[in-house]
Amino acid sequence: MDNNEVGQIGRKLRDARVAKGLTLDDLQQTTKIQKRFLIAIEDENFDELPGDFYVRAFIKQYAETVGLDGEALLQEFNEQLPDVHSVEYEEKITENEPATRSSKTKTSSGLDNLRQYIPTVIVVVIVIAILGAIWLTAIHSRSNNKSTNADSSSVSVSSSSTKKTSSSSKKASSSSKSESKKDSSSSALKVTAASRTSSAATFNVTGKVSSDYTLGLSATESSWLQVTSGGSTLYSGTLESGGSKSVKVDSSATSITLSVGNGAGTKVKLNGKTLDITDSGTYPNVRTVTIQLNGTSSSSSN
Questions:
Q1: Is 192 left (phi over 0), alpha (psi -120 to 50) or beta?
Q2: How many other C-beta atoms lie within 10 A of the C-beta of residue 210?
Q3: Quick one: where's region Disordered (predicted)?
Q4: Lowest mean pLDDT among 32-46, 75-89, 208-222
Q5: Is the pTM of this model over 0.85?
Q6: Residue-wise pLDDT tens digits, 154-191
Q7: Phi-psi label, residue 103: left if phi above 0, alpha if psi -120 to 50, beta otherwise
Q8: Do residues 200 and 289 touch, judged by C-beta distance below 8 A?
Q9: If 0-12 CB within 10 Å is exposed, 13-18 middle and 19+ buried, where does residue 128 land?
Q10: By the 8 A CB rule, do 219 and 243 touch?
Q11: What pLDDT is stored for residue 100 in this prediction?
């Protein structure tokens, strides 16, 4: 080998790395090869690597990372690189063989010891099975006694159950009437769109309510909201996606103003009536929604 060949493999790898725009730290992170070993490869100080086997393995991995053909590079500079089957490598294999034999001997001895305990294990299992049977018998006996006591008290329980059923029926009837009133209040309202622009929408709401208005807000995307009525702020905050908020508005109010941070991601209802604030997505950037109560605004128009 002449002097021109010496240093070529290290220089070739270094040049390829630089051409790729990689530092030694970048290469260390990608290949998981310690930086000091990468420097030793570039300087061709192969004695600093952990063994002859790792010289070829590290060079191949280095080459493929910087875009070179690792196998071709190893063949090209084969004479410069240490032989994989070195004396050190063969000694490690020889040292491991006695250890393997010793491991097999220990495994065989362990199986023999295990066989000695098999009769004891069988006896323990039988004893546990007998104790389990006794325990199940005792449980069954207690269950029969409880069943007898339950039969003797069935008459009083039946009477109590009848009273509870009657009470539940009365509560259900009362709840049904209450829901009916709410539905009647909601259906009495009529909501129409009075005017729309790209940033504002006005709705007319006609019809009387027997109690306060309920403004229901829900978000399909994160949205900042503020509700004002009669000069007072009733709610101000941010609803995250999937969040909802119910705001009570006095029945004597004449209007409600809703400021919206994300019109496309906000759903609005008044007493269960949906207000399409974006006109089915036509105005996704609406910022101000005015709700005129009892038809106090101008006539409806789209």
A1: beta
A2: 10
A3: 89-109, 144-189
A4: 75-89
A5: no
A6: 534 344 554 556 566 666 666 655 555 555 555 667 88
A7: alpha
A8: yes
A9: exposed
A10: yes
A11: 46
How many CB atoms neighbour CB 271 within 10 A? Answer: 21
> Which is more confident, 298 or 261?
261
State how far the Cα of 193 lies from the Cα of 282, in Å rounded to an integer: 14
d(CA 236, CA 271): 20
Mean pLDDT estimate for the chain: 78
**Which segments of the chain belong to CATH 1.10.260.40?**
8-80
Distant-in-sequence, close-in-space partners of 260: CB < 8 Å, separation ≥ 6: 223, 224, 225, 266, 277, 286, 287, 288, 289
Taking the CA atoms of residue 62, residue 68, residue 70 and residue 71 in that order, the dihedral angle to the nearest 10 degrees is: -170
DSSP-derived letter for residue 47 is: G
Pick the CATH number of 8-80 from 1.25.40.10, 3.40.50.720, 3.40.50.300, 1.10.260.40: 1.10.260.40
